Recover the amino acids of this structure.
């Protein structure tokens, strides 16, 4: 199959994201077997021409029976090691970004990492799990031969050709600051390789920070909207997902903005889409027309984003609060 | 009613119930009125929480509104609630008759016209009621929740921390004046069943008020609102380890400490209720899962254990008046959800360079 035919009629900020679960593929005896199974499963999403593929945490060790020391399995962060190379080959062939979640070694320390590979198979960035479990950290408790060093509290974001992405891994989901840091640094999408699915918790991070989350775990694969809604979820007969995401989309508070929604819809018709979340008083507005930017509409109708509205409200509240 | 008095009332009801004969002990009769059966079944740290929604608006006058609300309150009185939560500004929100803010704002110490009627209900049914009204204090107006105790006294006042801009700016939302935002660090209120806190409507968009209540040990947060809050409330319940009773313009809910809805009002029943157990904690799936067989083996049905799907959360509650959950956790070395995160953070900080 010729995978060089790229989709036509795509919106300028449309991104096709894929996530592969390894449910049903574990436990396995060897790393070699794991990678063979994983690569076979990944093939399911190639027909969608994904821009990015996320695969689960520590792909070479999670539920793999052969035990090797950290020294043996840790890969370099600049020159792709064995597992990263395999995934880099796929990235290059499919011309997509891929997360390579492996143990890495840097300056004598080990990290539970996610290496972001670009469309040419090159290393575009590395994320170190900020919140490894205590058993991962304390030497010899989990990994033969050493312990994992926790990553920096301000995780990096990476500019891709479709937008700004951040990464988080597994137990990172139990804390909020690391997710907020990604938002503050402009992440529009967070890639989440994990062992555990963190069902509702991930949805909360999505709506709290208004970014998409693409999650690949030992149990499931999901794509979450900026509102926390599940856009796509794997199941018994397809342990992978691939779906389009529109980054030309804004998160709004509906009050009193909703009073103007009717006029906006009347003017722009099918070129835009509002989705109102009544219980939360939220709305999203996205552009379905390559020529229309959501920010321009907000400016035209003098509508703030959710964050802008809250910032303004906070300012007014602080001004009028006693003491 | 003091803790002691309430305990006596419960004891009296228990004895009365036993006097009816063993034949009906254990029969579940919600709304069984004053026969005491519902109360008799309660564990020491259980409280029956009711929230009533406001749907059915607009109403032409405050009087019509109050009648509608008191009718709903009467409907649930048979449940013998320990606390009832009403919706934000339940006397004036979406009421057509326009009155000046000075006319409707009530005193925070001496119950005003609306608060007095709520207080009368509270006294009659020996329950707490969250009475959300506009109040006036030191020449300023607040969007408040007054907590009325079982004797009809004002036990606590909460001022909405985050009113909307239109509420604050004079004359934009209220005729004749604007509302002052409440202080950022307002106290929790101790009731005879546990510590409670209050939040109102737009507050749901900020985490600070909820976190302040958590730091003070709030076990139940009463959320009075115009809008329902949706998934935001489920998030706050888990994050802050508290039950939430929400009464809004659209719905009423009781939310578990795990973040899951326990009860939601519906089209033809505009209130939600649940007897919640405050002797209950959130723990994480790991490492709790591995210890469950042993815990089941020893304590059997003396504990209520619920695994909440793939959320990573398990709740453990005591179903035995003599058994404290903390002692079980200690015995099996199971940290609470919050303790686990705290311990893990400590290890991470210790090993993180720089």
């Amino acid at each position: 199959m010729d995978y060089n035919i790229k989709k036509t009629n795509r919106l300028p900020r449309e991104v096709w994201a894929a996530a592969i679960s390894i449910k049903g593929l574990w436990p396995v005896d060897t790393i070699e077997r794991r990678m063979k199974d994983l690569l076979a499963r990944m093939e399911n999403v190639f027909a969608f021409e994904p821009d990015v593929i996320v695969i689960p945490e520590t792909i070479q060790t999670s539920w793999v029976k052969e035990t090797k020391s950290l020294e043996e399995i840790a890969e370099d962060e600049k020159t792709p090691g064995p597992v990263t190379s395999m995934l880099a080959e796929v990235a290059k062939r499919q011309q997509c970004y891929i997360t390579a979640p492996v143990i890495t070694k840097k300056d004598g320390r080990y990290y539970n990492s996610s290496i972001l590979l670009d469309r040419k198979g090159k290393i575009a960035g590395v994320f170190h799990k900020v919140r490894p479990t205590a058993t991962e950290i304390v030497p010899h408790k989990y990994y033969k031969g050493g312990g994992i060093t926790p990553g920096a509290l301000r995780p990096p974001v990476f500019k891709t050709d479709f937008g700004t992405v951040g990464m988080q891994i597994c137990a990172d989901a139990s804390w909020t600051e690391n997710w907020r840091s990604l938002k503050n640094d402009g992440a529009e999408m967070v890639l989440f390789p994990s062992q555990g699915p963190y069902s509702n918790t991930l949805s909360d991070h999505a709506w709290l920070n208004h970014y998409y989350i693409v999650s690949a775990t030992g149990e499931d694969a999901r794509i979450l909207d900026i509102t926390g809604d599940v856009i796509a979820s794997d199941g018994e007969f397809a342990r992978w997902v691939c779906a389009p995401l529109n980054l030309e989309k804004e998160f709004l508070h509906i009050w009193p903005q909703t009073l103007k929604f009717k006029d906006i819809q009347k003017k722009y018709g099918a070129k835009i889409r509002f989705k109102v979340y009544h219980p939360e008083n939220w709305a999203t507005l996205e552009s379905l027309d390559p020529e229309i930017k959501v920010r321009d509409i907000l400016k035209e109708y003098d509508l703030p984003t959710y964050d802008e509205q809250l910032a303004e409200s906070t300012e007014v509240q602080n001004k009028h609060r006693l003491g | 009613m003091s803790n002691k008095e309430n305990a006596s009332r419960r004891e009296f009801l228990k004895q009365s119930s036993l006097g009816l004969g063993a034949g009906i002990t254990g029969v579940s009769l919600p709304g069984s009125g004053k026969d005491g059966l519902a109360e008799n079944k309660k564990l020491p740290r259980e409280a029956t929480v009711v929230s009533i929604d406001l749907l059915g608006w607009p109403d032409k006058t405050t009087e019509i509104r109050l009648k509608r609300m008191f009718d709903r309150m009467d409907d649930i009185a048979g449940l013998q609630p320990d606390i009832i939560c009403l919706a934000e500004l339940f006397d004036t929100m979406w009421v057509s008759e326009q009155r000046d803010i000075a006319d409707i704002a009530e005193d925070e110490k001496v119950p005003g016209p609306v608060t007095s009627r709520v207080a009368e209900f509270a006294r009659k049914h020996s329950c707490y009621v969250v009475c959300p009204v506009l109040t006036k204090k030191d020449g300023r107006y607040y969007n408040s929740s007054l907590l009325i105790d079982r004797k009809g006294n004002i036990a606590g006042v909460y001022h909405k921390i985050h009113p909307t801009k239109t509420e604050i700016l004079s004359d934009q939302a209220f005729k004749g004046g604007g509302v002052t935002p409440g202080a950022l660090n307002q106290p929790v209120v101790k009731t005879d069943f546990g510590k409670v806190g209050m939040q109102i409507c737009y507050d749901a968009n900020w985490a600070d008020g909820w976190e302040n209540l958590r730091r003070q040990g709030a076990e139940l947060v009463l959320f009075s609102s115009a809008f329902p809050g949706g998934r935001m409330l489920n998030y706050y319940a888990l994050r802050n380890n508290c039950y939430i009773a929400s009464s809004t313009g659209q719905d009423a809910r009781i939310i578990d400490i795990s973040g899951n809805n326990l009860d939601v009002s519906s089209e033809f029943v505009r209130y939600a209720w649940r007897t919640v157990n405050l002797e209950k904690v959130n723990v994480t799936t790991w490492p709790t899962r591995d210890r469950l067989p042993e815990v089941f083996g020893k304590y059997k049905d003396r504990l209520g254990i619920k695994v909440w799907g793939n959320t990573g959360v398990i709740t453990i509650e005591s179903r035995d008046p003599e058994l404290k959950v903390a002692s079980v956790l200690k015995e099996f070395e199971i940290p609470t959800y919050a303790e686990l995160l705290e311990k893990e953070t400590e290890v991470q900080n210790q090993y993180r360079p720089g």
Observations:
- The radius of gyration of chain B is 21 Å.
- Chain B touches chain A through 48 residues (CB under 8 Å).
- Confidence is low (pLDDT under 50) at residues 1-38 of chain B.
- The longest strand of chain B covers residues 128-137.
